[in-house]
Amino acid sequence: MKRLKIKEVLTGSQKGQQVLVKGWVRTKRGSKNVNFVALNDGSTINNLQVVADVEKFGEDFLKDINTSTSLAVTGDLVESQGSGQSVELIATEIEIYGKADPEVYPIQPKKHTLEFLRENAHLRFRTATFSAVFRIRHAMAFAIHKYFNDKGFYYMHTPIVTASDAEGAGQMFHVSTLDPLNPPVTEEGEVDYAQDFFGRPTNLTVSGQLEGELGATALGEIYTFGPTFRAENSNTTRHLAEFWMIEPEMAFYDLSDNMDLAEDFLKYLTKYALDNCMDDLKFLSNRLTQEEKNKPQDQRSMELIEKLNFIVDNDFVRCTYTGAIDILRNSKPFKKKKFQFPVEWGVDLQSEHERYLVEKHFKKPVILTDYPKDIKAFYMKQNDDGKTVAAMDVLFPQIGEIIGGSQREENYDKLITRMKEMDIPAEEMWWYLDTRRFGTVPHAGFGLGFERFILFVTGMGNIRDVIAFPRTPKSAEF
Ligand code: 4AD
Ligand code: MG
């Protein structure tokens, strides 16, 4: 008999027939005469109730069926007697693939903390919460490709190993095959990278943007979607050392076109989740509501599905950095000295400021533009005021910055002057500068932090819980 997925079986279309399903036991409860096994195969958050007659299968056999035991079950699919499900499977044959001894299997059917599950990240997929998160993560990755494909963008694979620091922030992981205890040394006593694998120092990429610009200035509109790496020592709920980023780059776009695309893109993805992931979202919404019951009323977040609809239905606010500084300096928390970090023109905004603007002041997603040039990367288009650049950050509730982007400086002279001011090695980036020497065009792009977006959609609170195996300072288990 052909195995069916539980998602399909639960539609009830096979009612009255024999079916074969395979999966892992979530829970088992029983009486003297009959055992009820909740079986899950990952195809849906919902379990199939398997009914096993004790006399037929024998107590000895049934005692090996515990949480996480893997089974193949053949049976008759009938209308369910109990509430909570429409159909159930009356087992005629049960095969145990692998037992899971309840004395040692760590993920028992009780409430575990997310910290505990993180330490057991190899098994946490088997919980309802994490299976929901990872199904949604998949759906969002698919929706990203669909969105750009439908719009005529080309998916471009930019290199993981690179010799340049796109963001100029120096937060890179070095890639080398030299013996760290005994590296070749130059006459000046420095490590001789000429003898390294690539013949020069190389790193894991922090962004695919620079190469993306090369593609966009020929193909028109491209996007990257790949892993990026940052050796920043930020142990927060929003930072990973290895995260995935989506970076569209578009020729002939200015900052305003860039903002329009970013807003449309985020709304599309959110709507896609609402249209395609409702079972998982409902589960996560209930989870969040339970979780937040202990919080004071004013610290609770909006109900998850309501929050997602809110994003789809409302225009994002657009405001300049200078305007935001004014708002912050006139705010209650500023006057009462509640902000931990300073607020004055020229400083980088911290997440406490971003969240104030989004959650308290505007109560909507916000796109901040035109930041001081000294706190932004060398490639951003210089504004006529000589002080700011055509940057944009999209700020979301509970997350803060979710997208960072800009119009790019397309003028060769201005770009190279800025690179020199900022100590960016222009000679090594001759290939990047060539786009400005030959057929340069106005262009723009942005980067969406994939995990930050998944945090938002799933309502999870810690970025370590939306990527399968998080890499953070002092942690690279699994
Ligand atoms: O603002 P960032 O640094 O921008 C860039 O890298 C540009 N090259 C993008 C572009 O214009 N093509 O990073 C973009 C986004 C941030 O807004 C944030 O969502 C995410 O990437 N991000 C991180 N996510 C998780 N962990 C980290 N350590 C992150 N650093 C940035
Ligand atoms: Mg940024």
Summarize the structure.
This protein is of the alpha+beta class and 478 residues long. The protein is built from 15 helices and 16 strands.
List the SSEs and their pairings.
Layout: H1 6-9, E1 18-30, E2 34-40, E3 48-53, H2 54-57, H3 59-62, E4 70-79, E5 87-98, H4 114-119, H5 128-150, E6 154-155, E7 161-162, E8 174-175, E9 202-204, H6 209-219, E10 221-229, E11 242-251, H7 255-276, H8 278-292, H9 304-313, E12 317-320, H10 321-329, H11 332-335, H12 351-362, E13 366-372, E14 388-396, E15 400-407, H13 412-421, H14 430-437, E16 443-449, H15 450-458
Bound molecules: 4-amino-1,4-dioxobutan-2-aminium adenosine-5'-monophosphate and magnesium ion.
Please, could you describe this protein's structure?
With 478 residues, the protein is of the alpha+beta class. It has two domains: 103 residues, Beta Barrel (OB fold (Dihydrolipoamide Acetyltransferase, E2P)); 306 residues, 2-Layer Sandwich (BirA Bifunctional Protein, domain 2), CATH 3.30.930. 32% of the residues lie in helices and 23% in strands. The chain has 15 helices and 16 strands. The strands form three sheets. The chain has an eight-stranded mixed beta sheet with strand order 6-10-11-16-15-14-13-12, sandwiched between helices. A five-stranded mixed β-barrel has the order 1-2-3-5-4. Strands 7-9-8 form a three-stranded antiparallel beta sheet, with no helix packed on it. β2 and β3 form a beta hairpin. α5 crosses α8. The radius of gyration is 27 Å and the shape is globular. The site of magnesium ion has 3 residues, from β15.
